[in-house]
Amino acid sequence: MEHLGGKAVASNIEAHVAAIRVCLESHFRMPALALIYCGIDVLANLSRPAQNTEVTQSDFVNWTERYMECQKLLGVSGLDLYAARCGILHTYTMDSRLSAKGRVKRIMYAWGSRSPDDPMRVLKLLGRSEVMIRIEALFSAFLQGVEAFGKAVDNHPELGSLVRDRGRKLFMDMPTFPSIAEA
């Protein structure tokens, strides 16, 4: 993953993906969702336009639609995922300002071998408009997004330079801290 714009970016993304896997394997579903959405935030921040000093909703939406192909893979828009992200990260629910205004599909989650098809049929029979996606499918789409983003960083020098520059600011695990004598 070194191609993702330098050691700090690669090591952080590798650790982040590993943490999501641990959560999923341990059946820690809400923390896994929080980490997936946080990972998207980080990558959207790295890819935001050069002139923008802060990551925005539109950066998140653009990243999910461009790199995760969320409509194709999950049947939801980037804005739907942004609203889901707000719900999970701020309240551990599917509620957000965007869903309250009726601007997005509210997302519910299935996991494991459970297919969301049967619950979706019941929801529709009850007149509900929520959609259900598998957490593992969201994670898979995120991984695809990480891979596609890495290729874009490699193939577009301007993006690669931007990501490397921003990557220098990321925290990084260091086994030891250099002493003053070494500096």
Explain how this protein is built.
It is a single chain. With 183 residues, this protein is mainly α. The chain has one domain (2-167). Helix content is 62%, strand content 4%. It has nine helices and two strands. The protein has helices spanning 7-25, 29-47, 57-68, 70-74, 78-91, 97-100, 117-125, 135-155, 157-167, and strands at 107-110, 131-134. It has a two-stranded parallel ribbon. The longest helix is centred in the C-terminal third of the chain and has 21 residues, at 135-155. It is globular, with a radius of gyration of 18 Å. The protein starts with 6 loop residues before the first helix and ends in a 16-residue tail after the last helix.
Short structural description:
With 183 residues, the protein is mostly helical.
Outline type: globular
Helix content: 55-70%
The arrangement of helices and strands along the chain is: HHHHHHEHEHH
What is the domain total for the residues? 1
Mean pLDDT: 92
Detail the poorly predicted runs: none
| Strand line-up in the sheet with most strands | 1-2
Q: How many strand segments? A: 2
The SS-based structural class is mainly alpha
Query: How many helix segments?
Result: 9
Question: Which helices and strands, and how do they pair?
Answer:
Layout: H1 7-25, H2 29-47, H3 57-68, H4 70-74, H5 78-91, H6 97-100, E1 107-110, H7 117-125, E2 131-134, H8 135-155, H9 157-167
Helix pairs in contact: 1-2, 1-8, 2-3, 2-5, 2-8, 3-5, 3-8, 8-9
Notable features of this structure?
183 residues; mainly alpha; 2 strands
